[in-house]
């Protein structure tokens, strides 16, 4: 089951519609064009078009599966007491005094440029169930970082 926000669900639905209505016909057209070029046994363009179509269909199937298993979380029913999925957490790196803010989301919604990290990441896992003021040590690939939770919002 994939927990996600309504916004994340809507984006996934829109992307699926785009793939099905725009990209799928493009892939079919590319195959037809390559097929028209003659002998299929030595037609690299045809093979590439078929491979691209297979990847597209696989992506569409995975997205449909994610949507079928999606559980939309109502943020109005969540508590700011501790860090959970969809929490927006402001924290301070104790060693460097650097402040950072991340929203903890499902893997399908993760986007570091938007400050959204997947719940499966070491930082998100280390923050879960902690409260404002807690100092947590989190093991990351580069070692251990110590963070203080400054605020939790939605």
Q: Overview of this structure, please?
A:
- With 154 residues, the chain is α/β, with parallel strands linked by helices.
- The chain is built from three helices and seven strands.
- The protein has helices at 6-35, 44-69, 122-127, and strands at 2-4, 70-72, 88-93, 99-105, 116-118, 135-140, 143-153.
- The strands form two sheets. The protein has a five-stranded mixed sheet.
- The radius of gyration is 22 Å and the shape is elongated.
- The model has no long low-confidence stretch (mean pLDDT 91).
Summarize the structure.
The protein is α/β, with parallel strands linked by helices and 154 residues long.
How many H/I helical runs?
3
The strand order across the widest sheet is 5-4-3-7-6
Q: What structural category do the secondary elements indicate?
A: alpha/beta
Sheet-strand content, in percent, reads 25-35%
Largest sheet: 5 strands, mixed
Q: What is the mean predicted local confidence, pLDDT? A: 91
End-to-end separation in angstroms reads 21 Å
Q: C-alpha Rg, in Å?
A: 22 Å
Helix content: 40-55%
Q: What attributes characterize this protein structure?
A:
154 residues; alpha/beta; five-stranded mixed sheet
Give the helix/strand layout.
Layout: E1 2-4, H1 6-35, H2 44-69, E2 70-72, E3 88-93, E4 99-105, E5 116-118, H3 122-127, E6 135-140, E7 143-153
Parallel strand pairs: 1-2, 4-5
Antiparallel strand pairs: 3-4, 3-7, 6-7
């Amino acid at each position: 089951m994939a927990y996600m926000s309504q916004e994340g669900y809507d984006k996934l639905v829109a992307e699926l519609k785009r793939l099905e209505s725009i990209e799928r016909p493009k892939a079919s057209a590319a195959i037809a064009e390559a097929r028209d070029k003659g002998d299929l046994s030595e037609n690299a363009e045809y093979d590439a078009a078929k491979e691209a179509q297979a990847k597209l269909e696989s992506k569409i199937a995975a997205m449909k599966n994610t949507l079928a298993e999606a559980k939309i979380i109502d943020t109005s029913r969540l508590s700011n007491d501790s860090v959970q999925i969809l929490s927006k957490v402001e924290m301070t790196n104790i060693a460097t005094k650097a402040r950072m803010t991340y929203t903890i989301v499902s893997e399908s919604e993760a986007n570091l440029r938007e400050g959204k990290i997947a719940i499966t990441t070491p930082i998100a896992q280390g923050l879960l169930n902690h409260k404002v003021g807690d100092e947590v040590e989190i093991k990351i690939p580069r070692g251990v970082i110590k963070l203080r939770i400054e605020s939790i919002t939605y």
